[in-house]
Amino acid sequence: MDKFVVFILCLCLTVGGVTHIYDNIVDGFLPYHFAPAWLNLYWSALGIVDLLAVYLLIKHRRSGLILLLFILLTSVGFNSYAHYGLGILENTGKLQWQTLLLGFSIGVSFWLWNSQKNRHSRQIFR
């Protein structure tokens, strides 16, 4: 079951990462001209960072979980600021889905962290 949950998390990160890479390829580096420079840089960097988190979730689960939570916490925070503070994001649908994914990720992270620990201890005693 934990592999299925990791797959779902990796799928969501891959969709996000590919979306940002696509924006950078089609519209050039730092394509979000409507945003402040720091936010433009953050969104552009997510293309690489999201895919790095996918790799880490697969190869080094605990490091991947830490990066996943960092990405989602900052993304929801920055996107909320962009929408509610700056008024530059009109569609709240993506923000709501990100917030849902953040809540899901926080919940399953405790379970995935412990399942990794239990799997490691079972391998030691075999």
From TrEMBL:
Record's keyword annotation contains Transmembrane helix? yes
User: What are the protein's UniProt keywords?
Assistant: Membrane, Transmembrane, Transmembrane helix
Transmembrane feature ranges: 41-58, 65-83, 95-113
Name of the protein in question: Uncharacterized protein
Q: Which organism is it from?
A: Vibrio alfacsensis
